[in-house]
Specification:
Belongs to the UPF0303 family. This is UPF0303 protein SVEN_2629. By secondary structure, the protein is of the alpha+beta class. The chain contains six helices and five strands, in the order αβαββαααββα. The protein has a five-stranded mixed β-sheet. Helix 1 (3-15) packs antiparallel against helix 4 (85-94). The longest helix has 23 residues, at 137-159.
């Protein structure tokens, strides 16, 4: 991943800031992700958290407990760095190294692979995460971004 891709990932995060994030918003986002994954027949697990509280979890056919372990590892990266797990990995690669080689974090607990994205709220910053596991990392990341874009556009149209 080059620095241009890092810039694009940073732009996604700047753009995908929500006006609020309630329990109902977590349900809406989760069911959006489930619907999108089912359309693609994607064998994923989905996790949404606000702080330490899990607000939504779903495992679709073809996923396994291994996906839950990946969710935990990717989510910890978001919690530690405050940006998407994909962006963290991209930043290390842009420096010519890897997260595993240079972060000094336990790879059994942290994974800078695409699929976990910060839930950021206007005026509050990062308050949680939404994570998908089961596809190649770029596809996990893209699925989360697409769902957040839909949630954000539906919030904007509801407010307008």
């Amino acid at each position: 991943m080059n620095s241009q891709e890092t810039v694009e990932l940073e732009a996604q995060e700047a753009r995908l800031v929500l006006p609020r994030f309630t329990y109902e918003d977590a349900w809406t986002l989760g069911t959006l992700l489930v619907g999108m994954a089912r359309e693609r027949q994607a064998p994923v697990a989905i996790d949404i958290r606000r702080g330490a509280q899990q607000l939504f979890h779903c495992a679709l056919p073809g996923s396994s407990a291994d996906n839950d372990a990946w969710i935990d590892r990717k989510r910890r990266v978001v919690e530690r760095y405050g940006v998407s797990s994909f962006l963290v990995g991209a930043r290390f690669r842009a420096k010519g190294t890897t997260f595993e080689a240079s972060s000094r974090l336990d790879p059994d607990r942290y994974a800078a692979h695409g699929g976990s994205f910060p839930v950021a709220v206007e005026g509050a910053g990062v308050i949680g995460s939404v994570t998908v596991s089961g596809l190649p990392q770029a596809e996990d990341h893209a699925l989360v971004v697409a769902a957040l874009e839909r949630l954000l556009s539906s919030s904007a149209s509801a407010a307008g």
